[in-house]
Amino acid sequence: MASAATKIMEKTARWVAKQAQKRAPVGGDNRFLEGAYAPVASETTSTKLKVTGTIPKELDGILARIGPNPIHAPNPATYHWFVGDGMVHGLRLLNGEALWYRNRWVGTDKANRELQRPLVPGKRHGIVETVNTNIIGHNGSLWALVEAGALPVEMDTNLDTVQHGLFRSDAVGAFSAHPHFDPLTGELHAICYNATQPNRIHYHVIDKHGQLARRVPIPVKHGPMIHDCNITRSKAIILDLPVTFSFASVLKGATFPYKWNKRHAARVGLLPRTGHAEDIRWYKLEPCYVFHTCNAFDTEDGSVIMDVVVHARMFDQSIQGPEAQKITLERWTLSPNSDQVKREVISDRAQEFPRFDERLTTKDYRYAYTVGADLNQPDSPQPLLRHDIKTGQCTEHFYGPTKVSGEVVFVPRSEHSAENDGWLLSYVYDLENDTSEVVILNADDLDGEPQAVIEIPVRVPMGFHGNWIAS
Ligand SMILES: [Fe+2]
């Protein structure tokens, strides 16, 4: 429970930020409010969906995706893509049919006040007002997630908000947009930070019933922004990298006050899953930033291997969003014989949103799926990339000369099918026609025609993360 002193500090921080935002310049351009990123104005339910091809009968569930979609037009001078009100998009598939598409704002208190709706029950935590970064299934419900303080938001299978809370637990505390699900235990593992606690982060484990099974405090400096983490069978992996809380940005009116910090030494920590902060082994590396990890696993010699998308720098010049910098897909090895991260480049193409067959979480694996990401030309068509990590081969799929895909999700054909035997699903946006569709590709035949294309009756803005949530 937040102490009275913490609550006073949070109120003060929110007031200072609002005053600075009032003083900030107004207007100008912001590419995260235009083109493929432009928000939609309303919620839609549609049951008449045009399908080309054949939807696999095995797909019984919802393809959920979330992203920022401001309810009211923000000030372009200070708007940051990471803080727009969250909107969830869902496509329900069953028996080879597309039953419906829905989009709904996540029912945070800010959103419900602006939409003149009643607030939903549950606990509250922190000063973050939006929940917009990931949507997962756990313990029979959908949970919209964000980092830096706000609790998860539970949504039902019609995408209506049910309540706020740390899953089924009575506890409160910051969570993460990127918990990692362990298929062997049914647990979610996450490294979590709170924007108003610069000197401490937490390792949280949520069990398969939604209860808080472990909370391990870990001391840090400067308030690092920790967007993702990873797990192996034996370790949780902590990315303590040089993007940290910036009070100077707050005073400039930034709505997302994190900046590149050259005083903050980059390090990666290995925390035994049953251990405490003093058991962490830290590894040094050159300054860089990682939003997203792919898979990670232990090796027989006691090393840990983790694949990551690495940005050379982040939030160095602009307060409006991710900056165009060199991006690489890399394999990082953390060996018991060194205190330095060993870095090997898998691919030097600009890409993001790494995914894999998540039945293989914590195990050695072969295929990683990413999407091209040219931040210099955000409205340029981009391919899906399938990396064969064993051979180094990269296979592309272009969705069309004017099309760009959001994050792809791999769904296996069956519980026991081989790796890469299944489908890659994503929301694809047509830059020229301003329309969206869901494309289902056969993961082992990226050169072939799509398995199915489902037209979405409204545009789906480019957003963040999505998952296949099986019924
Ligand atoms: Fe993310």
Give the topology, please.
Elements: H1 4-23, E1 44-46, E2 51-53, E3 61-68, E4 86-94, E5 97-105, H2 109-114, E6 134-138, E7 141-145, E8 153-155, E9 161-164, E10 180-182, E11 187-193, E12 200-206, E13 212-219, E14 230-231, E15 235-240, E16 243-245, H3 247-251, E17 258-260, E18 267-272, E19 281-284, E20 289-298, E21 304-311, E22 327-334, E23 342-347, E24 351-355, E25 367-372, E26 384-388, E27 394-397, E28 403-405, E29 409-412, E30 422-430, E31 435-442, E32 452-456, E33 466-470
The chain binds fe (ii) ion (FE2).
Fe (ii) ion (FE2) binds next to strand 20.
Describe the structure in your own words.
By secondary structure, this protein is mainly beta. It has one domain (4-470): 7 Propeller (Methylamine Dehydrogenase, Chain H). The chain is built from three helices and 33 strands. The protein has helices spanning 4-23, 109-114, 247-251, and strands at 44-46, 51-53, 61-68, 86-94, 97-105, 134-138, 141-145, 153-155, 161-164, 180-182, 187-193, 200-206, 212-219, 230-231, 235-240, 243-245, 258-260, 267-272, 281-284, 289-298, 304-311, 327-334, 342-347, 351-355, 367-372, 384-388, 394-397, 403-405, 409-412, 422-430, 435-442, 452-456, 466-470. Strands 2, 28, 29, 30, 31 and 32 form a six-stranded antiparallel beta sheet that branches. Strands 1-5-4-3-33 form a five-stranded antiparallel beta sheet, with no helix packed on it. The longest helix is centred in the N-terminal third of the chain and has 20 residues, at 4-23. It is globular. The mean pLDDT is 93. The protein binds fe (ii) ion (FE2). Residues 133, 177-178, 227, 291-292, 464-465 line the site of fe (ii) ion.
